[in-house]
Structure prediction request, 260 residues.
Amino acid sequence: MRTIAICSGKGGVGKTTVAVNLSILLSQMGKKVILVDADVAMANIGIVLGIERAPISLHNVLAGENVIADAVYEGPAKLKYVPSGLSLEGLKKLDFSKFPGAIAALEKSADYLILDCPPGLDETNQQAIKSSRELVLVVTPDPASLADALKMSQFANRFGIKITGVVVNRIRGSKDEVKPAEVEKLLGAPVLAVIPEDPEVRRSTEKQSPLMIGNQGTPAGLGFKALACAITGEKAEAIPAQKKGFLAGLLSALFGKKNQ
Ligand SMILES: Nc1ncnc2c1ncn2[C@@H]1O[C@H](COP(=O)(O)OP(=O)(O)O)[C@@H](O)[C@H]1O
Ligand SMILES: [Mg+2]
Prediction:
C-alpha cells in the first residue's frame, strides 16, 4: 500500500495531468488505485476525467457531513476517484485537519492512493502532504519551478516524508532548459521520468478524455508509461496495450506494427 502526493511549488506545471495519467496506467496494470482530488479549491479531477458533478465530494467529508467512503466513485479503466466540490462558497467551513484521518481510512481499500495536490504550501497542501507517505514532485525545466520545488522538498523533509522522485514535465529540448542531472543535484532526488511538451496532452484535456485512455503512443504517453514503471518497478510490458484507434489498428493489421 503506497500513498503518494503529487506536488509542485508552482501552479500549472502538470500535477493533475501527471496524477490522472499515472493513476490510469497503474489501474490498467491491475493495481487498486484511488485518485484523490486534494486540490479542493480548483477541483479539476472530475473535469479532466470528463465526469459531471458528484453529489458527495471531499468537501462534504472535510465539512464533517460524510465519511470518505461515501465520496469514492468509479471512473475510466476501473480507476476509483474522490472528487472535490466545485463550489467555492463552502470552502470556508472545511476543516483541513480532517484530511489525514480521511486519507488513512482509504488506505485499506487500495494498493495506491494518489493525491493530486494544490501548488505551494497553503494549509490544504500541508495537510495533504502530511497525509502521504511519499511525495512525487512535478517540475518544469526552468529555475522558478525548481526554486519552488526546493521549498516543497524542504517542507517534506521536515515531516520525514520521502521524496520518491521528480517528474520533469513539458520538456521542449531547448538549450536553456535545466537538465535532468541538474534537477537531481538540486532536489537531491532521482528524476523518475521526463515528459515532453506534447500537443496531444492539451488536446486530451480539452476533450476531457485523459491521454492514457487510448493514445499511449504519443511522446508524452511514453513518458507517463516510464513514470508508471519507475513507480512500480515493473517493465513496460506490464501495461497492456490499449485499444488502437482505427488508423493504428489498420496499420498494425496490415504490417504487424506494434503500438507500443
Ligand atoms: N506534457 C505536456 N504537454 C502539453 N501540455 C501539457 C503537458 N502537461 C500539462 N499540460 C497542460 O498544461 C495545463 C496545466 O496542467 P495541469 O495538469 O492542470 O497543471 P497543475 O495541476 O500543475 O496546475 C493543462 O492544460 C495541460 O493540458
Ligand atoms: Mg491541478
About this structure: Confidence is low (pLDDT under 50) at residues 255-260. The beta strands are 2-7, 33-37, 73-74, 80-82, 112-116, 134-139, 162-171, 191-196.
